[in-house]
Amino acid sequence: MSTTQYLTRDEVGILLTAAAHAPSMHNTQPWKFEIQGPVIDVLRDPERALPVADPGGRMSRIGLGAAAFNLRVAAALLGHETTLALEPDPARPAVALRIFLAGRRVPVPGLSSLYGEITRRHTYRGPLLAVPMPPVLRHELTVAAQAEEAELDWLDGTRRTQLGRIIHDADEREVHDEDRLHERMQWIGGRRDDDGVPAAALGPLPQTPASVRDLAAGFEVPDRGRASFETKAAVAVLSTPAEDSHGWLLAGMALQHLLLTATAHDLTASFLNQALEYTDLRDQVRTLIGRRSWPQLILRCGYPADSAGHTPRRHWNDTLGTRVTPEGSEPWNK
């Protein structure tokens, strides 16, 4: 595609609808997009920041990376090879990633095969079946993370126990942090039409302590019910060699690559990231994985025992700023 060729509205809809299905902390969907010919900019939306839980913007940039990976997958389905530039414009620090679309041909092998998993993937917070994940699948998920320059460290029983103590410490801190609870209440529970995590997607409360995060801890959500959770969940730590904004963006791409790969095998995942939201506890997790890299996400993986509610998404039109056409700049939702 040359710079004089432009995406159609239908193509933009396909690309940005895919991006919208990326995971983000509390489903804030902290992204905006700008399109100029075959170039798509992914921008951080400051109005969707979490200044208490994510003061440095690490998790929001992970979300942007995941959205960018979905864009690459959708572009591959449309026949576009993609190249990336991280934080390409020092004069515009809000632009986190720039995606360049090559000339359109046939669906790009590899990435395009993941397109059907984008809308199937969702965060599952219910109990898992007592069915171990085959080692070959663990390896496949590890390779998916490595393809985006990240590492996936599967914890053995001893380290899972140690992580459990760290998570318990984080949970205790959270329920006594009024600022954090107030911020979370803006996004969690109730009925949610286009963002946040509705009550139906929170999952049941565990009957006994379990490796699952209760996003509603600290405030009441009626009619959730209780369930018996697995005792030995497969838990992995996703990490990156770099601890900077580039590393966070790469972590997001790695996360989405492995999540779509997991979904293709009917696996599901949820997050135990509260252990990474406090500096000292994150350092303990880093020690747990050998201090060779920086932990960015903690995943609980397995086969779901029940169905679960999905989190809503904004219409792609609501995430798009301006486009540049032969006639000049104008809003897409004009």
- Tell me what portion of residues adopts beta-strand conformation: 15-25%
**CATH level 1 class label of the largest domain:** Alpha Beta
| Helix percentage range | 25-40%
Structural class of the secondary structure composition? alpha+beta
- Assembly type: single chain
Indicate the overall shape: globular
CATH architectural designation of the largest domain: 3-Layer(aba) Sandwich
**Poorly predicted ranges (pLDDT <50, ≥5 residues)?**
none
The N- and C-terminal alpha carbons lie at a distance of: 25 Å
The CATH superfamily of the largest domain turns out to be NADH Oxidase
Number of domains: 2
Strand order of the largest sheet: 3-4-2-1-11-12
Question: How many H/I helical runs?
Answer: 7
The ordered H/E elements are HEEHEEHEHHEEEHEHEEE
Protein name: Nitroreductase
Region (Disordered): 310-334
GO molecular function, one term: oxidoreductase activity
Overview features:
single chain, 334 residues, alpha+beta, NADH Oxidase, 6-stranded mixed sheet, 4-stranded antiparallel sheet, 30% helix, 19% strand, Nitroreductase/BluB, Nitroreductase-like, Nitroreductase
